[in-house]
């Protein structure tokens, strides 16, 4: 099993904010397990999250971006990765839920869906190499999209780990052929109307 998950019903300093995550590992389980274990400390280091903060979606968005890029950089320094023993990667999809907001960050093709008044509301979208924006970044970093895969091999264009696709010396970490930078979405405030209530 190369996957892992994260479940925090309250975060330190904000017991009314919950954090949930799913990490779909590929090529091994090291990255998925590492991120599931270490991500909360990176998120809390990136920002002070409070449900009373009216700017929570914006604060959480920046925190998710900062934390995911930081943990990806940290992974690169792990002995298993530095030695070449581990070349695994992982997608991630996470939701931060407060009494009034939900913020979803995804990197890769793991999905989150919200049931809102009986209707499915996508909170994430897949990062596939053939998507025009993803393909442009991959090619700008010296990669190719072949058979709808990065360099004919990897089926996602964003992931944690997978450092074999992050070797372009002229591109920032955010602009590598495969990047850990998430897309973050924060739908309208909670509570949402129940079915039949206007």
CATH class of the domain at 3-126: Alpha Beta
Structural class: alpha+beta
> What oligomeric assembly is this protein in?
single chain
CATH architecture of the domain at 3-126: 4-Layer Sandwich
- The termini sit apart by 45 Å
The profile of the biggest β sheet is:
6 strands, antiparallel
**Number of discrete helical segments:** 4
* General shape: globular
What is the CATH topology assignment of the domain at 3-126? Phosphatase 2c, domain 1
- Residue share in β-strands: 15-25%
Q: N-to-C SSE series?
A: EEHHHEEEEHEEEE
* Helix content, binned percent: 25-40%
Q: Give the overall pLDDT as a whole number.
A: 93
Spans of at least 5 consecutive residues whose pLDDT stays below 50 are 194-198
Can you walk through the features of this model?
The chain is 26% helix and 24% strand. The protein has helices at 30-46, 56-76, 79-82, 132-140, and strands spanning 3-8, 18-26, 89-97, 102-107, 113-116, 119-122, 145-146, 149-150, 160-161, 183-185. The strands form three sheets. Strands 1, 2, 3, 4, 9 and 10 form a six-stranded antiparallel sheet that branches. Strands 5-6 form a two-stranded antiparallel sheet. Strand 7 (145-146) and strand 8 form a beta hairpin. Helix 1 (30-46) packs across helix 2 (56-76). The longest helix has 21 residues, at 56-76. It is globular and about 45 Å long.
